[in-house]
Design a protein that fits this description.
The complex is a heterodimer of chains A (327) and B (413). Chain A is mostly helical and 327 residues long. Chain A folds into two domains: 2-92, no CATH class; 96-320, Orthogonal Bundle (MetI-like fold). Chain A is built from 13 helices and two strands; from the N terminus they run H-H-H-H-E-E-H-H-H-H-H-H-H-H-H. A two-stranded antiparallel ribbon of chain A has the order 1-2. In chain A, a hairpin with a 4-residue loop joins strand 1 and strand 2 (91-92). In chain A, helix 5 packs parallel to helix 13 (292-320). The longest helix of chain A is centred in the middle third of the chain and has 38 residues, at 184-221. Chain A is globular. Chain B has a three-stranded antiparallel beta sheet with strand order 1-2-5, with no helix packed on it. A two-stranded antiparallel sheet of chain B has the order 3-4. Chain B has a two-stranded antiparallel sheet with strand order 6-7. Chain B has 413 residues and is mainly alpha-helical. Chain B starts with 15 loop residues before the first helix and ends in a 5-residue tail after the last helix. In chain B, strand 3 (133-136) and strand 4 form a beta hairpin. In chain B, helix 7 (197-233) runs parallel beside helix 10 and helix 8 packs across helix 10. Helices cover 58% and strands 10% of the residues of chain B. Chain B has helices spanning 16-20, 32-42, 44-58, 61-71, 73-90, 92-95, 197-233, 235-250, 253-261, 270-301, 304-311, 316-352, 364-369, 374-379, 385-408; strands at residues 116-118, 124-130, 133-136, 143-146, 153-155, 157-167, 171-179. Classes of the chains: A mainly alpha (327), B mainly alpha (413). Chains A and B meet through helix 1, helix 6, helix 7, helix 11 and helix 12 of A and helix 8, helix 9, helix 12, helix 14 and helix 15 of B. Chain B: Keywords: Membrane, Transmembrane, Transmembrane helix, Transport.
Chain lengths: 327, 413
Amino acid sequence: MARFVLRRLLMLIPFLFLISVVSFAVIQLPPGDFVDTYVRNLEVQGGTVNQGQRAAIEAQYGLDRPVYIQYGIWVKHIAQGDFGNSFLYDRPVGDILKERVPRTVGIALAAMLLTWVIAVPIGIYSALRQYSVWDHLFTFISFVGLAVPGFLLALVLMYVVYEKTGWLVTGMFSPEYRAAPWSVAKFVDMLKNLWLPLLVLAVTSAAGVIRVLRASLLDEVKKQYVTTARSKGMPEWKLVMRYPVRIAINPLISTIGWMLPALVGGEVVVSKVLNIPTTGPVLLEAILSQDMYLTGALVMILSALTVIGTLASDVLLAVVDPRIRYE
Amino acid sequence: MTETATHKPQPPSGGSGKRQTRSRADRHYVNRRGAELLKEQRSARGRRQRRIEERLREASQARLVRARFTKHRLATASLILLAALYGIALFADFVAPYDKLQRFDDAQYTAPTRVHLMDQQGNWHRPFIYETRNELNQETFQYEQKVPEEAQRYPIKLFVKTEPYKLAGVVSMEHRLFGTEGRPVFLLGSDHLGRDLFSRLVHASRVSLLIGLGGVALSFVLGVVLGGISGYFGGLADSVIQRLIDFLISIPLIPLWMALSAAIPQGWSGIQTYFAITLILSLVGWTGLARVVRGKVMSLREEDYVTAARISSAGHLSIIRRHLLPGVTSFLVVHVTLAIPGMILGETTLSFLGLGISAPDVSWGTLLQQAQDVTVVANYPWLLAPAAFLVFAVVLFNFVGDGLRDAADPYSR
């Protein structure tokens, strides 16, 4: 077991390395380097940059050196907790990350829980009452759920809520709570605003989970031990819940692997639509204004957290399911 | 899997030759059962049954798949509708009554034009539209379109003559599928610049539907090559490619797509941007396909006929091409069908965020950009029409892919 965990942790190293390379490529790819952008932004604001200042900035980030050395400098700074500066917000990128990333993570995790809350009962019901009206209905809905991108669902739900109640679901807090310290009232207010994005994310990812759960439970209830238990007179409800469901739920942990990237990615877009102050709107603005340090850092942090989460789910699966061999 | 029926099946006994030589022995009670069988064989039903069986024996894999697929009614219907959608996309210039950029004066945010069949006097006509006037509703203080009394009718005509254009940029034409004279018809309303949403939608479907095909074609090549290498050679190449796939599927796609599309220079032409987006989408899209190919190739590699080919000193490349790839074709087709909607959704998401296709080109995503503001949608709900098309197309692809999966699996039923 310890060796298995260790191996997984070792695998994390090349992954994190690759992520940093990809993120650095993101910074490098756009035409012109970011000093151009920086200078242009300053000039738009009415400031001027002389040649000396420009050279100083270039030297600071090693822009006059070969690319791989630039990469090395960038990584070294990050290892020291310095993600560079955001031109767009005129703040250290690290501060923006500290503010926004936990919200994205929180929303993604909450959406994951909600996905299960929605998908598990539906999946169990669909499998136990295969080909019933409800099963067909859920199958159909999950087909449509797979077809509707999150931003669209958010848009339509927002529109419906607005039409019916005249209430615009947007942002994370109502204006009066935005600056207020945390309190029960503020938390309730947050839930009032966050139910829509959470629902959108959960519904779009629930479709896949329902399919997985339904298929694995259908396999399980056909097994002989179920027949044996039934012939011994065990009540159906207790029987199903105690054995096949417990086994069929295990693969759900392994679905974290593909759910998490989709949720994080979906959160970015849905937050943009619903104007929630997480990484989504910042990432989009950073990209549109070519604030490449911010973009690179966001891509890197989001990717790294997702990869770590996925590997954690692997370990979790191995702990929960004794059938997994540690190899 | 080519159509190679190596042996013709034996002609069924009891054919026409036997009829003349029927002897008295046939009528003996011991042979009665035989006579009954004979009779059944000669009956219309029996003959039909036999013909089907014969055909099944000779049928190629492709034919069997097709036969099983057509039994799946939902999938067949979806395929036909999809073909129609692609037809509309290809002939967009002809189907759309107006150009995607044509503006109409005083037609900003016009609600969908109502098509009538009956006039104010209660007489029936071919489909026509009425002239309308903007009137201020005294209760809601919003402009509404009212049909004045004694309004003039404008019939909707088929194959109307318009200014010349080039169909798909090649064929010169000057007719369009339908249109009106004297007054524009907005089947799905118009946008903030007074452009016909239906025409724009039709033009946009060309970009959106074809980007799915393009992206899949690219990821198909990558997936087959890398998956094939991974499965066939195994060893180090396999580990490296597998880790790469593990890596790619564990990072969140959308932020990466967004960041990559920032690298598209703003001065690029529509076509260049289009290909860049396709490239970005397929950069990650190949992973799923590579996994399928790898798994199949790995299991096929151990088959006897592959060993036989290797012993007769066939090269790696020819073994892969002639013996392994045909075995995975059906799975590839299924996977590709199911991968297209993902590409379409990816493009739509990027364009919706303003990172994909940009004006003057249109795609479903750019059309939906106008609907970003809920207050706008609340006033002009027809702006959500592209969403319906998008969901429709994606659902169709999913149904077709599902039907194909059932049909392509030789062990189903």
